[in-house]
From TrEMBL:
Protein name in UniProt: Elongation factor G, mitochondrial
Keywords, in A-Z order: Elongation factor, GTP-binding, Mitochondrion, Nucleotide-binding, Protein biosynthesis
SUPFAM superfamilies assigned: EF-G C-terminal domain-like, P-loop containing nucleoside triphosphate hydrolases, Ribosomal protein S5 domain 2-like, Translation proteins
HAMAP family reported for this sequence: EF_G_EF_2_B
Main location: mitochondrion
Any one GO CC term of the record: mitochondrion
UniProt similarity note: Belongs to the TRAFAC class translation factor GTPase superfamily. Classic translation factor GTPase family. EF-G/EF-2 subfamily.
Length: 746
């Protein structure tokens, strides 16, 4: 009723203004009229138009283990979709490098560090691609990219198969419920075996997957692919394989095609009722039936279609693009949730409509030529250049000065963008993970998982006059990357940078030098140890000080104890006091005192965690008690009872996966044992052995050099943080003695 009466009320105004200013009602005199009318029912055709345009958008990421050919694959996709007109290789001998690796450092090292965003058009669909890093030190980039994607391609090497980082990336995709395709790349390499890789995907990743293609020939004989859905043989002709020739299936592959198609139908029938019914009734299954069933099963995360090819040899990439369009979801087929801050973070489902209130997430920041560049994924509503939006985290109202669509480091100005799109804005001051709305709602997108840094370095500029540029660089990198943290050592006054590993920190030191022209002096890497307690200890401490005038008086009684395993918090404070022995206004000061005391344990001065502090009693003075007195009482009480709680030092333990030829297995195993590592698994894969071990990070410095010399450069390893675990007694004594010597020297 209200809507109908509103429509009648505004009808004369609508007629008047559309005659003067056209149908969009954007009058310079009545700026708010269109906003009032926005809530009214839109014509059906207009509503269907946005739905059609949304169905033609795909937001995808390409993730994989190092050197699986991810960036090369993206380069070919850009070439076939007409976004670039020539192909350059990753470690290009022509000195140009791949389009998506736009930082000098990336082209030099041949690895992808930042996720570059680009878009292209295929079969009248707009495909937004985020190229993500495959190195474990950059997992935050992968996490961030997956947070904003609707679908993903997991690239596996046909020789290497499912490797450690493939498992990590797959785990991240599972966490964010991203429907995905698998692309088995490098079929042209010696020893390529796609069926072995398919079995590994089923066993190691636990996927229900099946091939939708089979290769015609392998290694040097790779000539084309057979499409199992449409039962056609496809060959790639032309200099860059741009001409696709469709032909009959070769007779020698007929039986294999029948068998693999049956396996595909069986795998999909298990999770799709419609196809199962046709299959059980022994009715013929058409290409359309199978294609629709694969799409339904992929979107419901119950099945993963497996594509094959060789990006380097220009085979199979166009069919993978068809797969992206046919099997991966469009933005309205994915349910996104936001947290309503006005209702105690209640989960709200976002409609994905361009008519709704604006909700956008800043998932990446970059320092561009024209100031800070913020990558945004729009989940709902429409963003226009010149409009105002509100940063929910800071509450600031910001005008959108310039809106661009990105292609690696080239930009294209646009006037507006609607839900489902990935765009970038200039001159917006925010941090990574901030949510923007139009001010009518107070939603935040769910926070992203940020892993704790495991390694630290002391760093300083080589000359004092470089200080300004140096701090500018550190501030920028901190805003861009949540896992890169900067702090000050309170004792030495040195600047400490922390990150996810040696390579992560090395890259940042290198970037400070390249981008800001600041030579940095770097100290020895430091491991982020922790301390914890192993038993309960009582405290009863009276802090009393009289120095003329108002004194200080505060007494705290209680106990500290270790938190149970698996508890989500690292510090817990509980007030179990009965009565008012200590006025309630001083309780926060006591908690603050204990928290401060936990910042530095007495063993080696590292933070204390997994501790519960319980306050049971105390005493106060009517005049001399103050917040400061109770804070100091808590601080000293903790220091007094800490040794009685049998504290231990915890060190970061890394999950290390090594791959090397079998003849080097002996020396590698011996070396891991010498580094106090624990071997968890030892598998054989062809001529290689794959060793999985848990090794203390403190013993892993310079390991890449040691592994290379042990294996004549044939070994490779990846490591990621697993947990903090207690050190042995001899290591604890050694660390404590080193700490004492350092303090004495100061």
């Amino acid at each position: 009723m209200a809507r109908a009466s509103a429509a009648r009320l505004f009808a004369p105004a609508r007629a008047l203004f559309s005659s003067h200013y056209g149908p969009d009602l954007r009058s310079p005199f009545v700026p708010n009229l269109s906003r009032h009318l926005a809530g009214l029912a839109r014509p059906k055709e207009e509503r269907e138009a946005w739905r059609d345009s949304m169905e033609k958008i795909r937001n995808i990421g390409i993730s994989a283990h190092i050197d699986s050919g991810k960036t090369t694959l993206t380069e070919r996709i850009l070439f076939y979709t007409g976004r670039i007109h020539e192909i350059h290789e990753v470690r290009g001998k022509d000195g140009v490098g791949a389009k998506m690796d736009s930082m000098d450092l990336e082209r030099e090292k041949g690895i992808t560090i930042q996720s570059a965003a680009t878009y292209c058009t295929w079969d009248s669909h707009q495909v937004n691609i985020i190229d993500t890093p495959g190195h474990v030190d950059f997992t935050i980039e992968v996490e961030r990219a997956l947070r904003v994607l609707d679908g993903a391609i997991l690239v596996l090497c046909s020789v290497g198969g499912v490797q450690s980082q493939s498992i990590t990336v797959d785990r991240q995709m599972r966490r964010y419920e991203v429907p995905r395709l698998i692309f088995i790349n490098k079929l042209d390499r010696m020893g390529a075996d796609p069926w072995k890789v398919l079995d590994q995907a089923k066993q190691k990743l636990g996927h229900n997957c099946a091939a939708v293609q089979i290769p015609i020939g392998l290694e040097g004989e790779l000539r084309g692919l057979v499409d199992l859905v449409k039962c056609k043989a496809l060959y790639f002709d032309g200099v860059y394989g741009e001409k696709i020739i469709s032909d009959e299936i070769p007779s020698h592959l007929a039986s294999l095609v029948t068998e693999k198609r049956r396996q595909l139908i069986e795998a999909v029938s298990e999770v799709d009722d419609t196809l199962a019914e046709i299959f059980l009734n022994d009715e013929p299954i058409t290409a359309d039936d199978l294609e629709m069933a694969v799409r339904r099963a992929t979107l419901s995360l119950k099945f993963i279609p497996v594509f094959m090819g060789s990006a380097f040899k220009n085979k199979g990439v166009q069919l993978l693009l068809d797969g992206v369009v046919n099997y991966l979801p469009c933005p309205i087929e994915v349910t996104n949730h936001a947290l309503d801050q006005t209702k105690n973070e209640e989960k709200v489902s976002l409609s994905g409509s361009p008519d709704g209130p604006l909700v956008a997430l800043a998932f990446k920041l970059e320092e561009g030529r024209f100031g800070q560049l913020t990558y945004l994924r729009i989940y709902q509503g429409t963003m226009r250049r010149g409009d105002f939006m509100v940063n929910v985290q800071s509450g600031k109202k910001i005008k959108v000065p310039r809106l661009v669509r990105l292609h690696a480091d080239d930009m294209e100005d646009i006037q507006k963008a609607h839900a489902g799109e990935i765009v970038a804005v200039f001159g917006v001051d925010c941090a990574s993970g901030d949510t923007f709305t139009d001010g009518s709602v107070k939603y935040t997108m769910t926070s992203m998982n940020v892993p704790e840094p495991v390694m630290s370095l002391a760093i300083a500029p080589s000359s004092k006059d470089m200080g300004g540029q140096f701090s500018k660089a550190l501030n920028r990198f901190q805003r861009e990357d949540p896992t890169f943290q900067v702090g000050l050592d309170p004792e030495s006054g040195q600047t400490i940078i922390s990150g996810m590993g040696e390579l992560h920190l090395d890259i940042y030191v290198e970037r400070i030098k390249r981008e800001y022209k600041v030579e940095a002096v770097v100290g020895k890497p430091q491991v982020n140890f922790r301390e914890t307690i192993t038993r309960r200890a009582e405290f009863d401490y009276l802090h009393k000080k009289q120095s003329g005038g108002q004194g200080q008086y505060g007494r705290v009684i209680g106990y500290i104890e270790p938190l149970p395993e698996g508890s989500g918090t690292k510090f817990e404070f509980e007030n179990m006091m009965i009565g008012q022995a200590i006025p309630s206004s001083f309780i926060p000061a006591i908690e603050k005192g204990f928290k401060e005391a936990c910042n530095s344990g007495s063993l080696i001065g590292h933070p204390v965690e997994n501790i519960r502090v319980v306050l049971t009693d105390g005493a106060s003075h009517a005049v001399d008690s103050s917040e400061l007195a109770f804070k100091l009482a808590a601080l000293y009480a903790f220091r007094h009872c800490y040794p009685a709680a049998k504290p231990v030092i915890l060190e970061p333990i890394m999950l290390v996966e090594l791959k090397a030829p079998t003849e080097f297995q002996g020396p590698i195993t011996g070396d891991i044992n010498r580094r106090k590592g624990m071997i968890m698994a030892n598998d054989q894969e062809g001529d290689d052995c794959i060793i999985t071990a848990h090794v203390p990070l403190n013993n892993m410095f310079g390991y890449s050099t040691a592994l290379r010399s042990m294996t004549q450069g044939k070994g490779e390893f990846t490591m990621e943080y697993r947990e903090h675990a207690p050190v042995s007694q001899d290591v604890q004594t050694q660390l404590m003695n080193t700490h004492k010597k350092t303090k004495a020297a100061e």
